[in-house]
Design a protein that fits this description.
Layout (H helix, E strand, L loop, with lengths): L4 E4 L5 H18 L11 H12 L5 E8 L2 E11 L10 E9 L8 H15 L5 E3 L6 H9 L16
Parallel strand pairs: 4-5
Antiparallel strand pairs: 1-2, 2-3, 3-4
Helix pairs in contact: 1-2
């Protein structure tokens, strides 16, 4: 198996990141269609375009995992200040982490996660927070093994039922 490299995302990566972002949207929607939005025919381009606007933001970290010149995963994270809504002080926030299904189970997610944590730490984040879907047990195992602890539980109630 060829080595995986982790690097900062570039504008040339946005189409692939958009595809992976749309995959993330589909996975979450499949887990709970009432809570998570569905992917549309525009999700890939819209997601890639949005993340492209974030590449030069000083408090944003977007990393890609690459094997043989192919982007096979990415993370999107940022450094945030005090958030009274979350009752949280300054922190790095991991918004997205996704690895192409053909490359899962090979340590790529952990490599991306570790590199993202280091990048957030280098930007002054004293901690990293993230959210994960209740039914996404694979992701939860990754985060548990990386030393994350459970601190919040989101609950949803549909009002049209």
């Amino acid at each position: 198996m060829d080595a995986v490299g982790i690097r900062a995302a570039t504008p040339a990566d946005t189409a692939t990141i958009g595809r992976l972002g749309a995959l993330l949207v589909r996975v979450h929607h499949d887990l709970d269609p009432q809570r998570f939005i569905a992917a549309t025919s525009r999700t890939e381009s819209a997601y890639g375009s949005f993340l492209g606007t974030q590449l030069d933001e000083p408090n944003i970290v977007i990393l890609v995992a690459e094997r043989n010149g192919e982007v096979i995963g990415y993370t999107y994270a940022g450094v945030e200040g005090t958030d009274y809504m979350s009752l949280r002080g300054p922190a790095g926030a991991l918004y997205d982490i996704v690895v192409d299904p053909a490359h899962r189970g090979q340590g790529v997610g952990r490599m991306l996660l570790d590199a993202t944590i280091e990048a957030l730490k280098a930007r002054g984040a004293p901690r990293v927070v993230l959210s994960t879907a209740e039914r996404n047990t694979v992701a939860q195992r990754l985060f548990d093994r990386a030393g994350f602890r459970r601190t919040m539980i989101e609950m949803t109630r549909e009002l049209n039922d």
